[in-house]
């Protein structure tokens, strides 16, 4: 098995930690995550970036979701997020695998009370009900559970994306934007490249 180089050894890591909030920050970045359908089409949706560390980037979702079916079929994904006011865009692609259980449990614990409940009630059956019944189901669940003591449901699924390419796009008001692109090569090394914006 090939061991991925750690991100902390990557030349972009010091910059990345200034672009992304610390994992302890309750407000998580919203990113567009792409996976590939069985027909080979890219499929994109927004998700929260729950955490990142020296291994990669972590997302959390419902095990019954389309994205999990797609990643089970083809464990490759990309995500992008932009901060136009700061002149920054991050584009990452790489290989995915299930996140370790301890990470997924920690990420669940860090979610807001609303999102903890959502993970429990995010079912196709509930989605099919009229609005008053969905509100009642939510109210009833909240009445029976303390969000602080909620554990992740069996459908809580964590995705670890180990990057193979990371692109930092920089804008500058006085000149043309450009990209610094880092590609994972052999074990432990990253090649870098400068590209026009
Ligand atoms: C602001 C916002 C945050 C979201 N965060 C997540 C998330 O962290 N995880 C998730 O699975 N879906 C999240 N969603 C819902 C997804 O966009 C998507 O509708 C859902 O995951 C189903 O996608 P799929 O059928 O392609 O798997 C979020 C949506 C929005 C608008």
Task: Give the tags.
197 residues, Pnp Oxidase, Chain A, 39% strand, single chain, alpha+beta, binds flavin mononucleotide
Polypeptide structure, described:
- There is one protein chain.
- The protein is α+β, with helices and mostly antiparallel strands and 197 residues long.
- The protein has one domain (7-111, 153-196): Electron Transport, Fmn-binding Protein, Chain A (Pnp Oxidase, Chain A).
- Helices cover 26% and strands 39% of the residues.
- It has helices at residues 13-19, 66-73, 101-110, 113-121, 124-127, 131-144, and strands at 30-36, 42-52, 57-62, 76-83, 88-98, 156-172, 175-184, 190-196.
- The chain has a six-stranded antiparallel β-barrel.
- Strand 6 (156-172) and strand 7 form a beta hairpin.
- The two termini are 36 Å apart.
- The chain binds flavin mononucleotide.
- Flavin mononucleotide (FMN) is lined by residues 30, 43, 45-48, 60-62, 65-67.
């Amino acid at each position: 098995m090939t061991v991925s180089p750690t991100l902390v050894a990557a030349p972009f890591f010091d910059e990345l930690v200034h672009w992304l909030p610390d994992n302890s920050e309750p407000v998580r970045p919203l990113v567009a995550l792409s996976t590939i359908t069985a027909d080979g089409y890219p499929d994109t949706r927004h998700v929260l970036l729950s955490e990142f560390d020296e291994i990669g980037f972590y997302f959390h979702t419902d095990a019954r979701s389309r994205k999990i079916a797609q990643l089970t079929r083809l464990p490759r994904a990309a995500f992008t997020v932009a901060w136009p006011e700061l002149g920054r865009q991050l584009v990452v692609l790489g290989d995915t695998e299930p996140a370790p259980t301890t990470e997924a449990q920690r990420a669940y614990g860090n979610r807001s009370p609303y999102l903890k409940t959502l993970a429990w009630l995010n079912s196709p059956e509930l989605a099919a009900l009229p609005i008053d019944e969905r509100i009642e189901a939510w109210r009833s669940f909240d009445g029976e559970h303390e969000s602080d003591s909620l554990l992740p449901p069996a459908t809580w699924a964590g995705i670890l994306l180990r990057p193979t390419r990371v692109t930092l796009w920089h804008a500058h008001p006085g000149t043309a934007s450009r990209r610094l692109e880092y590609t994972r090569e052999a074990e432990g090394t990253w090649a870098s490249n400068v590209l026009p914006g």
